[in-house]
Design brief:
This protein is 49% helix and 16% strand. The chain has 5 helices and 4 strands. It has a 4-stranded mixed beta sheet with strand order 3-2-1-4. It is globular.
Length: 119
């Protein structure tokens, strides 16, 4: 297969983020509770994805711990559950960012458009 066709396939799959991100939202709410908020930001939210992009997903919950190692564990657990239970392709390029509500208030100005993901 020619490189151009491969890149086009990757890009078309990336554009299907609206199909795939709800799996992440459901997994996050399973693990962190129904009060968890999930948003897509960055290139996907601002309609500027490229073939080299990933989809940035913000997860905001009071149950998120402050310890970075614990956050990483939760991110891995969310991703694993999204793949195993909700059908997220294991290689889909998402970048999950976890915040406590008060942490998010401090950084939300860094994000442009935010699209809430309902599960």
């Amino acid at each position: 297969m020619k490189l151009g066709k491969v890149l086009l396939q990757i890009y078309r799959r990336l554009l299907r983020w609206r199909e795939y991100v709800p799996a992440v939202a459901r997994a996050a709410k399973d693990l962190l509770g129904p009060e968890t908020k999930v948003y897509v930001v960055g290139g996907a939210a601002e309609d500027r994805l490229t073939v080299a992009s990933d989809v940035d997903v913000l997860i905001i919950s009071p149950k998120v711990l402050k310890d970075p190692h614990e956050k990483l564990k939760v991110i891995l657990d969310i991703r694993e559950r999204a793949v195993d239970k909700y059908g997220l392709p294991w290689d889909y390029p998402i970048d999950v960012h976890l915040y406590r509500p008060e942490e998010f208030e401090e950084v939300k100005g860094l994000y442009g458009r935010m699209i809430e993901v309902r599960s």
